[in-house]
């Protein structure tokens, strides 16, 4: 309930800055591919995600990502920088955030999620996780292979 209240405050406090609802929509497959050809570097970098709770101790192998509702739609917000997070949330979200490699973020998604990049800002974009995973499947595979190789090297030391 507290999370819904916070989301409502964010939405209400940013109404004057928001892009009209009809201009922000989930892109279809072809539009998603075109957008990510133009914005191909987004997941090469770290993205900022909001956590639903603090990370556990150093041995923890899981994170809980906070999702939000807007107009009956469930989505996971991600941000291209900490400054974009601050601008979007206007200080209203007190949940912890972390920066995570973009391909690692994509690799932990199930595929049925809605993703919003920089919500409530002028570069607000919406995507289906399944489309992002499909478009970046080779990069995700390469990233995970490299991560596994790095872990194997560390274990041998």
As for the number of domains, it is 1
Which sheet architecture does the biggest sheet show?
6 strands, mixed
Helix content: 40-55%
Q: Report the structural category.
A: alpha+beta
Oligomer: single chain
Average of per-residue pLDDT values: 79
Q: Uncertain spans, ≥5 residues at pLDDT below 50?
A: 1-23
Q: Would you report the number of β strands?
A: 6
User: Outline, from the CA principal axes?
Assistant: globular
Number of helices: 6
- Approximately what portion of the residues adopt beta-strand conformation? 15-25%
Order of helices and strands: HHEEEHEHEEHH
Note the gap between the termini.
47 Å
Radius of gyration: 16 Å
Give an account of the 3D structure.
The protein is an alpha+beta fold and 157 residues long. The chain has one domain. Helix content is 40%, strand content 18%. It contains 6 helices and 6 strands; from the N terminus they run H-H-E-E-E-H-E-H-E-E-H-H. The protein has helices at residues 2-13, 29-38, 82-89, 102-107, 129-135, 137-156, and strands spanning 46-50, 68-70, 73-79, 97-101, 114-117, 125-128. Strands 1, 2, 3, 4, 5 and 6 form a 6-stranded mixed sheet that branches. A hairpin with a 7-residue loop joins strand 5 (114-117) and strand 6. It is globular and about 50 Å long.
Short synopsis of the structure:
With 157 residues, the protein is an alpha+beta fold.
Protein traits:
6-stranded mixed β-sheet; alpha+beta; 18% strand; 157 residues
How would the blueprint of this fold be written?
Layout: H1 2-13, H2 29-38, E1 46-50, E2 68-70, E3 73-79, H3 82-89, E4 97-101, H4 102-107, E5 114-117, E6 125-128, H5 129-135, H6 137-156
